[in-house]
Amino acid sequence: MESLSREMEKGVEDGVFPGGVLLVSVDCRIEFFEAFGVSDIYSGKRVEKRSVFDLASLTKSLATTLALSGLISEGTIRLDQRVSSVISAFKDTEKDSLTVEQLLRHTSGLPAHRPYYETLVLHENESREGVLHGLLAGEPLLRSPGRDCLYSDIGFMILEWLVKEAAGERLDRFLDKEICTPLQIRDLFFIDLFSEKPAAENQKRENRIVATEKCSWRRKMLCGEVHDDNAWAAGGIGGHAGLFGDAGSVLKLAREILKALQGRETHVLNTMVIREFVKKKGPFSHVAGFDTPSGQNPSAGRYFSSSSIGHLGFTGTSFWIDPENSVIVILLTNRVHPSRENNAIRLFRPRLHDLVMERLLKNREECK
């Protein structure tokens, strides 16, 4: 697929991103997998296929949502369950009636974002979790639950808290034990910034992690610590951000999701639960834990089927899964390096996805 190589190379040349990896899988075969550009504009280090990216909001789909699907599958929680039945701080508040599903579908009525990090950094590491939980419990709703769809990081921060309460362990440990280890995924992980002794595996991965932003208030180039400010201040592990990974690891999870969407047997996911998650309800573009192609110029482009699901990450990452065509497209970039002000990827993504699908659909027509 020379056209894809040219488009990615042009993305680097035009400054859409310093570096990136594009992986295209069709019918469980890798059709395209290449790396482009640099992981750090100052050192000039090249991006490789095994380069590790800050996945940003892909955390919502690949970590928090899949962890919750596991807890639902084992009967620990239910989609329609009130969050207050697990998190007692929500009882007898305006958030008492909030359900797990409303948080997953971004219909909770919570705001999109709050700069909690400004408060968290004033506290010692060991007290930040309690402070964060107090901020989440006290966050007022902007709208009545279930009425509108408002994409919310805060909702997924609450879901991370819920996973910990329901599972009895942190999200990162639950994900590793229940999903990554059974699938032999080694390079999908969180980085615990409060740990005095970083895991040996993380130390081995350090030279493969790409740089993100030159942060003015942290006063350094970010590399090896989460870009999202709230996740950083909370210690690196969040329900909304904090996951790191390479394209091959994302593909392993995406293939599991694809099999579930197609009603096939999976290794770690409950097909019935995942298929319930992705049912569209009302006029909203978000399903439970995932986004769908929507709007006049969706990031997935024009050719992904209406049953497709995926997610975008602020750092320049994305994945899309099309169950009707058995297609998975993973694009990992460091478009925020060295500055988040670069938004050229908004036009690049749909154009790239159109190129992918045009080529694949043309090949299928020629094979008929």
Strand content: 5-15%
Structural class, please?
Answer: alpha+beta
Shape: globular
Unreliable stretches covering 5 or more consecutive residues: none
* End-to-end Cα distance: 20 Å
Helix content: 25-40%
Number of helices: 12
What's the number of extended β-strand segments? 10
- Write out the strand line-up for the largest beta sheet, numbering strands in chain order: 2-1-10-9-8
Following the backbone from N to C, one meets helices and strands in this order, namely: HEEEHHHHHHEHEEHEHHEEEH
What is this entry, summarized?
The protein is α+β, with helices and mostly antiparallel strands. Helices cover 36% and strands 13% of the residues.
What does this structure look like?
With 368 residues, the chain is α+β, with helices and mostly antiparallel strands. It is built from twelve helices and ten strands. The protein has helices at 2-13, 58-73, 100-104, 117-120, 125-138, 153-167, 171-180, 200-205, 229-233, 247-261, 271-277, 345-367; strands at 19-26, 29-37, 53-54, 188-190, 214-215, 220-221, 243-245, 309-313, 317-322, 327-333. The strands form three sheets. A five-stranded antiparallel β-sheet has the order 2-1-10-9-8, sandwiched between helices. It has a three-stranded antiparallel β-sheet with strand order 3-7-4. Strands 5-6 form a two-stranded antiparallel sheet. A hairpin with a 4-residue loop joins β5 and β6. α1 runs antiparallel to α12. The longest helix has 23 residues, at 345-367. The model has no long low-confidence stretch (mean pLDDT 94).
